[in-house]
Amino acid sequence: MKYRSYMLALLTVLTAVNSMDRTALVLVLQEIKVDLNISDTQIGLLSGLVFALVYSIAGVFVGRWADRGDRPRIVSLTTIIWSIGVASSAFVTSFLPLLMLRGAAAIGDAGLNPPAHSLIADHYDRTERARAVGVYMSGNAVCLVAGSILCGWLAQFFGWRLMFVILAAPGIALAALAWLSLREPRRIREQGPSTASLEEQQETEIATASWLSVLTTLWRVKTYRYLALTATTASFFGSAIGGWMPTYFIRRYEWSVGETGTWFGMASLGFLLGTYLGGELASRYATNRETLQLRAAAVCIAFGSVLTTSILFIPRTDIILAAMVLNSFVFSLQSAPTMSIMHGLVAPRQRARAIAALYVLLSIVGGGLGPLATGALSDALHGVAGEGSLQLALMLLAPGSFAAAVLAWNASTTASADLDQRAAEHRQHSILNAAREATP
């Protein structure tokens, strides 16, 4: 096995394991609500906003660290922090300590995606990157499929507390494996100015640029701006709906946690297939045709918005399952191509911060405000809809992701020009550096 294939496989397993706690938490929200006697608004804070805020603050530091430091070491250390935070959640007896431990888990979780995406982009070029990103992001899909089923039945038989301890255990072993086996492929080595090439000196300047400078540069790129807003909008409405769907079905159909986990694990098969297939199709049939990739992404998001809304009106559980599989498949087809395109829009030594900036938006607006908005709206509608307040809140929010489709279509109008400009700048810098170094 080539090293880069091994690296990709290990990072994929890590992202699957690191996502387990979020999948598990969504499944046991109702049990935690009863056990700790908390409101739907507090559930929204627990499953979204606090985790998102801490994740975002940590992500800012991790992004800069990953652009300058040893990325495999960052992955290892933060995975250990994640494991400790998740395992400790088993011992809380009230809302506030659990909230604080979710913050600790968020710090650990923030340390994976920026360095992982940056490492993948270093090992795979523009023609292969969508496929590689699809494989990596399929780790989240594996978590949703296997994790939903596993976590559901672990909670059913052992309770939600022991479930968290079991889920945290593999993180320590994987952190050790990453520390021992992954290599940092930095192009810059520790050397003095007299021996460093001009290209390496330029990369050093890029890597040490301030966050404000990086964000200003990114925001000037129209395609990055459109894609960041696309992902953020989709994340907000996706989290607002998806984060509450298990609780909704438990309340409406009186499913057990184990049954709910099994149903959602089966439904997530579409997510697994779509995430991988989206990257594969983009690399095989639409290489260097980013306009086509993003227009297809816009269509997928729009269709997914319609399916999400329709699920809330379907009375039969077998049809609901089929619709959920199709919805997760269609919506996830766009994930790998859009993320791969974002990699190509930024300088190599700023990729970790570009991804960190994106995940800050996804975390705060999507993962943070999305579930909180649903919980607060459900509480506000309780006087009007009674026990049906959650369903009504979901119905009102579900069509909103259509806005993300519009933004993705806008990105398709600028993507090719922005990517070609970035590639031309890189070629020009390489030619100038070669000419200067050849001059005696």
> Secondary-structure element order, as H and E?
HHHHHHHHHHHHHHHHHHHH
Overall pLDDT metric: 84
- Tell me, what is the CATH class? Mainly Alpha
Strand content: under 5%
Q: Which secondary-structure class do the elements indicate?
A: mainly alpha
Distance between the termini: 43 Å
CATH architecture: Up-down Bundle
Number of helices: 20
Contiguous runs where pLDDT drops below 50 for at least 5 residues:
187-196, 198-202
The overall strand count is 0
The residue fraction in helices comes out at over 70%
| Count of domains | 1
The name CATH uses for the topology is: Growth Hormone, Chain: A
User: Main beta sheet, described?
Assistant: none
- CATH H-level superfamily title: MFS general substrate transporter like domains
The quaternary state of the protein chains shown equals: single chain
- Large-scale geometry: globular
What is the radius of gyration?
Answer: 22 Å
Membrane topology: Multi-pass membrane protein
Subcellular location: Membrane
Protein name: L-galactonate transporter
Organism: Terricaulis silvestris
Question: Would you write up a description of this structure?
Answer:
- The structure is a single chain.
- This protein has helices at residues 3-18, 20-36, 40-68, 71-88, 95-110, 113-123, 129-181, 198-207, 211-220, 222-242, 245-253, 257-267, 269-285, 290-311, 317-332, 335-344, 351-385, 389-397, 402-412, 415-438.
- It has 20 helices and no strands.
- Helix 13 (269-285) packs parallel to helix 15.
- It has 440 residues and is mainly α.
- Its main location: membrane.
